Amino acid sequence: MGRRSLAGSLIGGIQETQEMLDFCAQHAITSDIETIAINQVNEAYDRVVASDVRYRFVIDMASLKTAEAGF
Description:
- This protein is an alpha+beta fold.
- Helix content is about 40%, strand content about 15%.
- The protein has helices at about 15-25, 40-50, 60-70; strands at about 35, 55-60.
- It has a two-stranded parallel ribbon.
- The longest helix has 13 residues, at about 15-25.
- The protein is extended, with a radius of gyration of 18 Å.
């Protein structure tokens, strides 16, 4: 009873995030990604566990509609 906690983030707020994105855009700094379909999420997870990931995974949300049509 009466327990309190305070949490925060060291990555900054919205203004700092926008400044970082603007800086990256000005200097053409991008990240490498591997786009996967929604039905490849389990495979992607297995690859993360196996340390077999070279890029950040990004799920193609358009593939969600295709997956929903199959149900």
